[in-house]
Design a protein that fits this description.
It is built from 5 helices and 5 strands; from the N terminus they run αβββαββααα. It is α+β, with helices and mostly antiparallel strands. The strands form 2 sheets. A 3-stranded antiparallel sheet has the order 3-5-4, with helices on one face. A two-stranded antiparallel sheet has the order 1-2. A hairpin with a 2-residue loop joins β4 and β5.
């Protein structure tokens, strides 16, 4: 399913440090809701998506197998405050650090700056007043600087 069909496309796109990764993204249905699966690359070294049941986790892994940017696909069990949940991961193993910590954000390829600063960084780099969704689709538009912060 096309990445733009994902319910969380704008949310994820506005936080990614390297918006070029959106070109390799796909929307995957999890409990009837299309969610964005973004490949690894650049600053984005790994990904983790909690999906609930083992059946859904295996189906998601199968759907992503063989796609470029989704290496080392694995299914695991996560202990969270909500109890045990199945998850799908790809790329490197996530670091053991608090969620939201700068090293956590960098590992997953998100802007380390606050949300407004991150948006300003993306808009300034692109030189465009168009919404992010439209800017991402124009290959002539440079969205963000290269490199990780």
């Amino acid at each position: 399913m096309p990445a733009l069909d994902a319910y969380d496309y704008e949310f994820v796109a506005s936080r990614l440090h390297d918006a070029d990764l959106l070109l390799g993204s796909v929307a995957v249905r999890i409990f009837r809701a299309p969610l964005l699966a973004v490949p690894v690359g650049g600053c984005r070294r790994g990904v983790r998506i909690e999906v609930g049941s083992a059946t859904v986790a295996r189906a998601l892994r199968t759907a992503l197998l063989g796609r470029s940017g989704f290496p080392l696909l694995r299914v695991g069990l996560s202990g969270s405050v909500y109890g045990e949940r199945w998850l799908v991961e790809w790329g490197e193993q996530a670091p053991d650090c608090p969620v939201g910590a700068p090293e956590h954000l960098r590992f997953f390829g998100y802007c380390v700056a606050s949300k407004p600063a991150c948006d300003a960084h993306s808009a300034a780099a692109s030189g465009s007043d168009l919404p992010l969704r439209q800017r991402v689709l124009d290959p002539r538009d440079e969205l963000v600087e290269r490199g990780c912060r």
